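From the methods appendix. Each design record in this collection lists the tokenized structure first, followed by the designed amino acid sequence. Records were kept in a plain field format so they could be parsed without special tools. The example shown here is representative of the layout used throughout.

RECORD:
FOLD TOKENS (381 positions):
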């Protein structure tokens, strides 16, 4: 990965959002073909044969294969064969991008403002922390950046973003028009993945029976129905930091940070350093960051431990009410990165200041209160 940042340095962002002192080589992101709309099981069988030979699929071949799968034209055996073949060899940028383009094309869309951002992780880090990225979404929205958050119920932890939002009183059963109102009027809207990705029903049974991570564990943050141009994405393993940033570039995202804590978190962590890949203007750069770079103290892993949805909802409310401590610090760090990506902050430390003001002024809590009120209004607009 990239070079470690000096623990006492402050991070300034140029147009790329990458600290000049820690910038690694940049590589252009290739353009992408359009998703295949005329694929069938023959395309899937061809893809399986290619993967069985140990070869990689092009974006077009991947798109055709996943078009067949997500259209219901594949048998369980064919789905399992492709997923395991890709898993054993290791999915490539082109293969992930092809699959993500199909999933995006089949999603129930939501319109979001041009400057909207998504704060979403892959999950699967098995660390049992509280819902950091969900808490961050309220802080970022409170700082004035619209958030179009995409998420799901828990898969491997005790509380996913949908679980904790429900515990906070947010109604998840909202039409796209209501979600658009939430983003416009509250600053934050939540898209519940199962409601927007009906095509995923074709792979649910096989994924459950396989019991291992597959390409679909990476696709959630890559398939936001609002197509946000700015993203903070946490990944469950360091090896995916740079590839996922490249995929986001292929998908048309303008600027993003893809992050992984050296302690295993799919977030920027405050217990140690984090690996970051920055996408900006079609270029991907990598570096490492410490909480000290943002002027924040180190934490212990046990300081970040969460619980079930109700416990994590209480943690989020405590942070939004201004309670000091490690949960606030990690929210500030990740919110600062999001504000940097969105162009609201000029440095990471500036982002921390803006995030802290969003909390201490009550604006972040006001976003939560407004979201609960609007989503529970049964009158659809």
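DESIGN:
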């Amino acid at each position: 990965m990239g070079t470690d940042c000096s623990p006492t340095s402050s991070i300034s962002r140029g147009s790329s959002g990458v600290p000049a002192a820690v910038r690694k080589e940049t590589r252009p992101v290739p353009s992408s073909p359009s998703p295949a709309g005329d694929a069938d099981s023959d395309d899937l069988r061809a893809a399986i044969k290619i993967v069985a030979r140990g070869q990689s699929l092009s974006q077009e071949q991947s798109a055709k294969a996943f078009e067949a799968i997500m259209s219901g034209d594949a048998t369980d055996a064919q789905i399992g064969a492709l997923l395991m073949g890709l898993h054993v060899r290791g999915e490539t940028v082109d293969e992930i991008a092809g699959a993500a383009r199909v999933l995006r094309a089949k999603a129930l869309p939501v319109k979001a403002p041009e400057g909207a951002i998504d704060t979403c992780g892959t999950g699967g880090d098995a660390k049992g922390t509280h819902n950091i990225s969900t808490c961050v979404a309220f802080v970022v929205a409170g700082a004035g950046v619209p958030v179009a958050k995409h998420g799901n119920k828990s898969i491997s932890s005790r509380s996913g973003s949908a679980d904790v939002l429900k515990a906070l009183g947010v109604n998840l059963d909202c039409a796209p028009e209501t979600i658009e109102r939430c983003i416009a009027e509250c600053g934050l809207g939540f898209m519940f993945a199962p409601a927007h990705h009906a095509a995923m029903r074709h792979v649910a049974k096989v994924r459950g029976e396989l019991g291992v991570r597959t390409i679909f564990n990476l696709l959630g943050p890559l398939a936001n129905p609002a197509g946000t141009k700015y993203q903070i994405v946490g990944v469950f393993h360091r090896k995916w930091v740079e590839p996922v940033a490249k995929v986001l570039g292929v998908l048309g995202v303008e600027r993003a940070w893809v992050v992984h804590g050296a302690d295993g978190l799919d977030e920027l962590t405050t217990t140690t350093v984090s690996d970051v890949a920055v996408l900006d203007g079609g270029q991907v750069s990598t570096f490492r960051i410490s909480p000290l770079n943002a002027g924040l103290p180190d934490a212990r892993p046990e300081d970040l431990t969460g619980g079930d949805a109700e416990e994590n909802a209480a943690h989020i409310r405590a942070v939004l009410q201004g309670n000091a401590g490690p949960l606030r610090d990690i929210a500030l760090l990740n919110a600062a990165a999001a504000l940097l990506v969105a162009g609201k902050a000029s440095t990471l430390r500036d982002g921390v200041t803006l995030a802290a003001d969003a909390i201490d002024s009550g604006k972040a809590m006001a976003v939560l209160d407004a979201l609960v009120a609007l989503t529970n209004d049964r009158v659809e607009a």
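APPENDIX NOTE: The first strand starts at residue 27 and ends at 28.
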